[in-house]
Amino acid sequence: MSRSLRVIGAITLIAAVFPLSGDDAAPVRPGYLGFGFTIHRVAADRTSWLNVRDVDPGSPAAKAGLRAGDLIVGISGKPLQFRDGLDLVLGLAELKVGKPNSLTIVHARRRKTIEIIPTPMPDAQYEQWKANLAMLKAQRARRRN
Predict the structure, then answer these.
(1) Cβ distance 15 to 32 under 8 Å?
(2) Res. 99: pLDDT tops 50
(3) How far is CA 145 from the centre of its chain?
(4) Rounded to the nearest 5°, which phi and psi values hold at 38?
(5) How far, CA to CA in Å, does 137 sit from each of 5, 46, 122, 140?
(6) Which residue has the higher pLDDT, 31 or 102?
(7) Residue 77's closest CA among 96, 90, 95, 64?
(8) Measured in whole angstroms, how far is the alpha carbon of residue 50 from the centre of its chain?
(9) CB contact at 8 A, 90 and 83
(10) pLDDT value at position 71?
């Protein structure tokens, strides 16, 4: 299964840094990483990876050395496993603005770990992020019904 997730336009991933106290709770403004990706997942065991499509110049991702074509296979030493885009976004909630995090990537066929530090999300991206979060929640609710 392969699916594109456009979190902020086509070029940014938002590290979802928000505690939620319930489905209707307003999230705290998430952190910003600055890359676009395509989600890939093996349905049977939820093994997942992100194919980096592009990286915003000057973003935390660019500063960490992430490049288009890299595969992200782990965060904070754990393999990616999720059932849908919302699960991925919620799973990123452990990443904190200003706190170094490790990404396990495959670059040029070599596995390595890079350190990335989320920055505060700009206002325009935050508004788009909230809309995307609502869309992902609605998609999950439709699947349940």
Answers:
(1) yes
(2) yes
(3) 26
(4) -120, 135
(5) 14, 19, 22, 5
(6) 102
(7) 95
(8) 8
(9) no
(10) 97
Q: Sign of torsion, CA 126 124 130 89?
A: negative
Distance between CA 69 and CA 66 in Å, rounded? 9
In order of 10, 58, 104, 107, 119, the CA distances from 113 in angstroms are 24, 20, 4, 10, 19
Q: What is the rounded distance in angstroms from the CA atom of residue 109 to the CA atom of residue 86? A: 29
Strands in the chain per DSSP E: 2-5, 14-15, 31-32, 35-42, 47-55, 71-75, 78-79, 101-107, 110-116, 119-120
pLDDT for 55-89, tens place per residue? 999 999 999 999 999 999 999 899 988 888 888 87
Per-residue pLDDT, 87: 84
Give me the pLDDT at residue 16, please.
36
Mean pLDDT of 6-26: 40
Q: Which tokens in the block code for residue 50?
A: 């992100």
Q: Are 14 and 28 in contact (CB under 8 A)?
A: no
Integer distance in angstroms from the first to the last C-alpha of the chain? 22
- Return all residues near 22 (Cβ < 8 A) that are at least 6 apart: none
Strand-pairing partners, residue 56, are none
In terms of phi and psi (left: phi > 0; alpha: psi -120 to 50; beta: otherwise), the region of 8 is: beta
